[in-house]
Design brief:
Strand content: 25-35%
Number of strands: 9
Structural class: alpha+beta
Number of helices: 3
Shape: elongated
Radius of gyration: 31 Å
Distance between the termini: 105 Å
Number of domains: 2
Length: 204
């Protein structure tokens, strides 16, 4: 049986059918794109979680009455081979390198230049500062050698002493930024703000 509809009517129905088909394809493509984006986001999340779990984070334990800060990784399966401590050059001109025997930071490294940098008037009453440093670490995890370069802040407190000058102690360690690239001395220098770092505290 032949189609007796006018030719113009047939064109309208063909056009509507094409629009429906194109819309169906567009919806299918949109659904696929959204599903693909969700899979990518999940893969990124899993990757970031894995990186965070594998990241090296050092913790500091105050020892010897604040004269030193013993360092160790938070995760026990990470074994330190060596570390290099890079301070602002105004406080310590040359980095300090230590083996894994006992990674630690000594306040004696810092006290002489801190007295000069902070100035006499500020040191006449108790206070504290956050001293930036970059810790470069070589370590082993899962049998594989790894390396890390991270910016931390070292807590330093002081109390005045009339005969011997201010007495400095170390108070702790806090992570600031991971994956330091380039010259670590420049990163430490850029983060050092002696005029505004820390605050003065009342004597207890």
């Amino acid at each position: 049986m032949s189609d007796t509809r006018p030719e113009g009517t047939r064109r309208v129905w063909l056009t509507v059918g094409e629009v429906v088909a194109v819309a169906a394809l567009a919806i299918a493509a949109l659904n696929y794109w959204e599903s693909h984006q969700e899979r990518l986001a999940e893969a990124r999340r899993v990757s970031l979680d894995a990186q965070a779990q594998a990241a090296l984070v050092m913790r500091g334990e105050v020892i010897d009455g604040g004269r030193a800060l013993a360092l160790a990784p938070i995760r026990s399966e990470q074994v330190i081979s060596s570390e290099r401590y890079v301070f602002p050059r105004a406080v310590l001109a040359d980095p300090v390198s230590l083996s894994a025997t006992r990674p630690e930071i000594l306040v004696a490294w810092l006290a002489p230049r801190l007295r000069e940098t902070l100035g006499g008037s500020r040191l006449r009453k108790p206070g504290h500062i956050g001293l930036p440093l970059v810790i470069e670490t070589s370590y082993v995890e899962g049998g594989e050698p790894r390396s890390d370069s991270t910016l931390y802040v070292l807590g330093v407190a002081w109390r005045p002493r009339w005969l011997t000058g201010p007495h400095f102690t170390l108070t702790g360690l806090a992570l600031v930024r991971r994956s330091i690239t380039g010259d670590p001395s420049k990163a430490a220098d850029a983060a050092w703000r002696p005029a505004s770092s820390g605050s003065e505290t009342k004597a207890s």
